[in-house]
Amino acid sequence: MKEIPIKSIKAMQVFDSRGNPTVQVTVSLLDGTQGVAMVPSGASTGKYEAIELRDNNYREYNGKGVRRAVENINKKLQKSLIGMNALNQERIDNIIIELDGTENKSRFGANSILGISLATARAAANYLNEPLYRYIGGISGNIIPTPMMNILNGGLHAGNNINIQEFMIMPIGVRSFEECMQICVEIYQVLKELLKQKNISTSVGDEGGFAPKLKLKEKEKKRNGKIEKTDEIAIELIIDAINQAGFKAGRDVALALDVAASEMREAAKTIEKEGYYFWKTDEYKTKDEMIDYIENLASKYPIRSIEDPLGEDDWKAWSELTKRLGSKIQLVGDDLFVTNKRRLQRGIDEKVANSILIKPNQIGTLTETIETIKLARKNGYRTIISHRSGETEDTFIADLAVAVNAGQIKAGAPCRSERVAKYNRLLNIEKELKKRKE
Known about the structure:
The chain is α/β, with parallel strands linked by helices. It contains 14 helices and 14 strands. Helix content is about 40%, strand content about 15%. Helix 13 links the parallel strand 13 (about 380-385) and strand 14 (about 410).
């Protein structure tokens, strides 16, 4: 194996798209080549994710500083990696995992570990003068993913009256990523005009999707004393936007949802119940009612994919829902699997879900991320590369999606530069791949 030693690893505290501190890592090689990576952060996080180390010093950044994570890199981890071959990604990642020595990366923090892992990969790619997707995926990494574009936000990503966290659109049967972008952007702009016409705010949530507080018709406001149906009104608004943009919902564009049901399970504890509590509209559902609700949405609307329709520990309910819908639509485990191959293996064994969301910061290293993707592929699970709600301008996941031929990517709305950066990177990769074929 060709060798190029790591000369130094330096970290600093920078900021993500929510204005919270995060980690930036620069890996420098002996010849002067560098690779830089920034680590994202989630708002709706699964409890089985690798630990994101924060300072918990409430005199700075409300306790969200990452100076300890930065110090772990600069004073501890760097020492063990100097002189290592940057081209041996698996060895470097395994050394960091061994040094941490915990199941969930809690000693040094997954944000410290991932920053080094991703910056090393980028430095190695730069040294070889290869695009990042080609370095990671080789000549077989050449499929541009279909965007699952978030255009309307609810749940923890928005301060409105919508419970479901993400409402997304997916172009169907489109020949190029450029065409996908045109379709999605045109629908996004039509949705904005529709909201304006209804005198509804067009402010956006964490991921750039609109975050409207929906107005209900008087006859819809109450049923058994509870406000209901805001989520379905959101779906119907999006279908209107698709059709008014000149496309056909279900034929040209499908819908995708991220229910983020683990948050509803946690909310149910506040009312001392075990099911699902839609806290924004004061509506409670038992496990069976939640399964029925998801099945009804899937039958009523042109929905192709539903992420986290049930809680991260609700394996029995997940199994039942998979029996009902697994052959019809994409059932995506995010909080359920947290990019962890052990949890994914349990899902495979118990025939739960049929797809997995891939977020590198849920597991902590590029090597572990790719191992999980390989396990999913081997067992027929679809893979979707995903951003986080607290993002940066780093475009690593765009290259990763192409490298592993994921086929789908979640990068947010066509709004906010930290989201658009990923889409622009994919447009550039598509152009490069076309040139290679000419």
